[in-house]
User: Which sequence fits this backbone?
């Protein structure tokens, strides 16, 4: 099975130059191929396929035009791909599937830098970096999103693109067939919450990252920069600040937002990876009423910062990839109120009761008790 992944990268200044140069050369050659065929057509000569154009370009045109040697400096696979893209555009036009191919304009058209795995050292992926031919190791912003080579997954090819000064990589990954028989372990239940992100029935607790000292510090910084931004807006009215100052401050705020978002996403990825790596036969979670919780203005910020929706979507993908059944329990299932020992339902359980005490003598952490009940739930839907 092939699967594609797209994520933001953080190239070095040197890598950025190389990417722009390669994309520039690809755009030039693409347009050259289009223009060359146009003039062939005008002279009544035969259309040139992508392959024959490649041969002509390298063996005839460049040797006869030394001022075009720079074309050869770019990554040849990427250049070849741009000619192939041009050929595909022509083919679609000939089959009346699309209009006559357009010339690509600088900065306006999305020309991408194509790369392909050609030897075992290419396209290796680690949690935080990816090896791209001619660029070398490129840092990934979202750690652990692209599956690493270790898992037996193989990156076949990909593209690097630029949008609004940000750099992205998109890769095509070959995934080995899933062996469900591997997951002979028991199932697990996960209680998601605001106090902690996840309490797992195997005894592990994943804390709420938003309560960590590191995130609190950045959030404090963010509030300060936001206050500074609104002050600058006030000053603009009085003529004491400039648009340029505001833009600069806006960028500062954006960067902090981005940083916070990255930390939260990385934490979710890490949590899910750890849970899935225990290879349970199934995972049960509660169908959280996220939109309902968001309506509560006391909770909405805490709820959105936990990224429950992203957690569930990513958990589902990881479960699919690993042959784990994901069970969703109805939101009215009283997972917190059931005594895991005797099955009694404690109707008067309050939100403030952090410890569950049953008349049968059972005493347990409230959320852990809930995770056990989720694990053993008999009524559920399969996501
Ligand atoms: Zn009991």
Assistant:
């Amino acid at each position: 099975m092939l699967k594609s992944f797209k994520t933001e990268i953080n190239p070095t200044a040197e890598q950025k130059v190389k990417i722009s140069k390669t994309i520039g050369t690809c755009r030039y050659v693409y347009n050259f191929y289009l223009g060359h065929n146009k003039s062939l057509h005008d002279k009544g000569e035969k259309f040139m396929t992508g392959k024959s154009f490649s041969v002509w370009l390298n063996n005839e045109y460049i040797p006869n035009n030394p001022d075009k040697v720079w074309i050869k400096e770019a990554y040849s696979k990427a250049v070849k791909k741009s000619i192939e893209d041009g050929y595909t555009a022509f083919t679609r036009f000939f089959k009346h599937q699309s209009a006559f191919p357009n010339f690509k304009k600088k900065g306006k058209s999305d020309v991408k830098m194509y790369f392909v795995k050609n030897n075992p050292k290419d396209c290796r992926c680690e949690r935080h970096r990816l090896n791209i031919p001619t660029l070398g190791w490129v840092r990934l912003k979202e750690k652990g999103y692209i599956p690493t080579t270790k898992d037996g997954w193989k990156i076949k090819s990909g593209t690097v693109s630029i949008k609004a000064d940000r750099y992205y990589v998109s890769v095509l990954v070959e995934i080995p067939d899933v062996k469900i028989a591997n997951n002979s372990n028991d199932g697990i239940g996960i209680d998601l919450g605001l106090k902690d992100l996840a309490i797992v029935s195997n005894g592990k607790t994943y804390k709420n990252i938003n309560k960590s000292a590191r995130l609190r510090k950045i959030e404090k910084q963010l509030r300060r920069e936001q206050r500074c931004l609104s002050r600058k807006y006030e000053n603009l009215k009085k003529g004491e600040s400039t648009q340029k100052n505001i833009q600069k401050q806006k960028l500062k705020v954006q960067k902090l937002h981005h940083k916070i978002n990255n930390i939260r996403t990385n934490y979710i990825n890490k949590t899910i990876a750890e849970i899935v790596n225990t290879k349970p036969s199934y995972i049960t979670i509660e169908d959280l009423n996220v939109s309902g919780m968001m309506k509560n203005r006391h909770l909405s910020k805490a709820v959105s910062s936990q990224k429950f929706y992203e957690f569930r979507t990513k958990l589902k993908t990881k479960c699919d990839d690993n042959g784990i059944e994901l069970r969703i329990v109805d939101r009215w299932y009283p997972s917190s109120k059931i005594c895991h020992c005797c099955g009694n339902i404690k109707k008067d359980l309050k939100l403030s009761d952090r410890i569950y005490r049953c008349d049968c003598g059972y005493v347990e952490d409230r959320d852990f008790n809930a995770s056990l009940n989720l694990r053993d739930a008999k009524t559920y839907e399969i996501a």
In short: The first strand starts at residue 2 and ends at 10. The pocket of zinc ion is lined by residues 339, 341-342, 344, 358, 360, 362 (CB under 6 Å). The chain has ten helices and 14 strands.
